[in-house]
Specification:
The chain contains 19 helices and 12 strands. With 466 residues, the protein is an alpha/beta fold. It has 4 domains: 118 residues, Response regulator (Rossmann fold, 3-Layer(aba) Sandwich); 174 residues, P-loop containing nucleotide triphosphate hydrolases (Rossmann fold), CATH 3.40.50; 67 residues, Orthogonal Bundle (Helicase, Ruva Protein, domain 3), CATH 1.10.8; 49 residues, Arc Repressor Mutant, subunit A (Orthogonal Bundle).
Length: 466
């Protein structure tokens, strides 16, 4: 797609000559005969470069420049001036104009100046991408590897064995399991053992952003694509070039974006928001979910063709309550993070943790250990009393609810209402208690007819906010 240029000049003959010269150089050129006409054009549609005379009837070049700078799409501005006007043009460059050119030799010099301005613009955009990649690579110093995954139970050995086998390939992997079972840790380890390990590992939480922002986050956007898009922004697929994109909570992906992700998986191409150029995506995709995607397909909430593209190599991570033999080594690991040893834990406390059902899985165990260490003090023994007094019933034990004759839908309704009550109406906290995203909570509240209500108690959790 050709770069778009607006030429603002009140002398029609000169304006037409400049139009012809730049068109022959391969640009898409529009003209405005005067400053007022230029301002109208600038407000009507985006341009990459604006070439404006300094002195015109109506709005002058300075006003045209300032109007251009006020636009969200932030075009480059080249000012045309006579010898006597150069001081004003230099001042405009200090305020952000890209260049100025003296009219005496304009037809010969302007195409070169325009090309230089556009090349500088492109370099700034590429610099933004590189900056993002450098930040991502810096974070990868702390990526997990397979030897840092703790657990010797049969389910954990099976999962780790599958992950180690698929890691050197380029196959898409779908990690399945409850919230807190270590899906992102496995994704990091798969990337670290892959042929793409020297390139970025870029995680995206699909449930953490509203639909409008999620598309821009994944695919990037062009300057002026929407209100607030003041510059071109690379997306996660662009930042991850040559590496791995980890799509967490893939079950929360809106259907409009599911279609676009399917194109990435099928054709390895995507388009930035507000753009037209097809871009290549040289990335491996790992995805994770705690949802039943097959059930969502039956409900029409998840695309079947996308599911089969993602589900090339599924790996299921079982809940911690199903591999209790892994609790002691995990406890020891989390105690070491708090600068404590297993010897600081009383036998009663360890026995309690062995029998605890861990609805929040490994993440909950880590939080329980941290809390207990704080309560016990730096030198004190960690005792049973430093852990919650009530032990929740295993999630797989339905006896209480079945005895009441409750359906699955009624159970979910009750759980949502209880979580909202415990969180005192705060949707973010309630979603965290349930192990789902806030967007999923709103969706399920709506399906159960539970009022979403007004503002949150802390004012930070209205629908659509990130």
């Amino acid at each position: 797609m050709a770069d778009r240029i607006l030429v603002a000049e009140d002398k029609e003959n000169l304006c037409r000559l400049i139009e012809t010269t730049l068109s022959e150089a391969g640009y898409e050129v529009s003209i405005a005969l005067g400053g007022d006409a230029a301002i109208h054009e600038i407000r009507s549609r985006p341009f990459d470069v604006i070439v404006s005379d300094m002195r015109m009837p109506g709005a002058n070049g300075i006003q045209v420049f300032r109007e251009a700078r006020a636009q969200g799409y932030q075009p480059e501005v080249i000012l045309m001036t006579a010898f006597a006007d150069t001081r004003e043009a230099v001042q405009m460059m200090k305020e952000g104009a890209a260049d100025y050119i003296v009219k005496d030799n304009i037809l010969e010099e302007l195409p070169l100046r325009v090309r230089q301005v556009l090349e500088n613009r492109k370099l700034r955009q590429e610099s933004s991408v590189l900056k993002g990649r450098i930040e991502t690579l810096r974070e990868q110093i702390h990526l997990h590897h397979f030897d840092s995954i703790i657990g010797t139970s049969s389910p954990m050995k099976d999962a780790r064995g599958l992950a180690e086998r698929v890691a050197p390939t380029d196959a898409n992997v779908l990690l399945l399991g409850e919230s807190g079972t270590g899906k992102e840790i496995f994704a990091q380890a798969i990337h670290a053992a892959s042929l793409r390990a020297d390139a970025p590992f870029v995680p995206v939480n699909c449930g953490a952003l509203p639909e409008t922002l999620l598309e821009s986050e994944l695919f990037g956007h062009e300057k002026g694509a929407f209100t607030g898009a003041i510059r071109t922004k690379p997306g996660r697929f662009e930042i991850a070039e040559g590496g791995t994109v980890f799509l967490d909570e893939i079950g929360e992906l809106p259907q409009s974006i599911q279609v676009k992700l399917l194109r990435v998986l099928q054709d390895r191409t995507y388009v930035r928001v507000g753009g037209e150029d097809m871009r290549r995506a040289d990335v491996r995709i790992l995805a994770a979910t705690n949802r039943n995607l097959e059930e969502m397909i039956q409900q029409g909430k998840f695309r079947e063709d996308l599911y089969y593209r993602l589900n090339v190599f599924p790996i299921r991570l079982v809940a911690l309550r199903e591999r209790r033999e892994d609790v002691p080594p995990l406890v020891e690991h989390f105690l070491l993070l708090q600068e404590r040893a297993l010897a600081h834990l009383t036998p009663d406390a360890l026995e309690y943790l062995r029998g605890y059902d861990f609805p929040g899985n490994i993440r909950e165990l880590q939080n329980l250990i941290e809390r207990a260490c704080i309560l016990a003090g730096r030198e004190g023994k960690i005792e049973r009393q430093h852990f919650p007094l009530e032990r929740p019933r295993a999630a797989g034990d339905p006896s209480d609810l079945l005895s009441l004759g409750m359906s699955l839908e009624q159970v979910e309704n009750r759980m949502i209402r209880e979580a909202l009550e415990r969180a005192q109406g705060n949707k973010t906290k309630a979603a965290s208690l349930l192990g789902i995203s806030r967007r999923a909570l709103y969706s399920r509240m709506e399906s159960h007819g539970i009022p979403i209500g007004g503002p949150e108690t802390d004012g930070s959790d209205a629908p659509g906010q990130s």
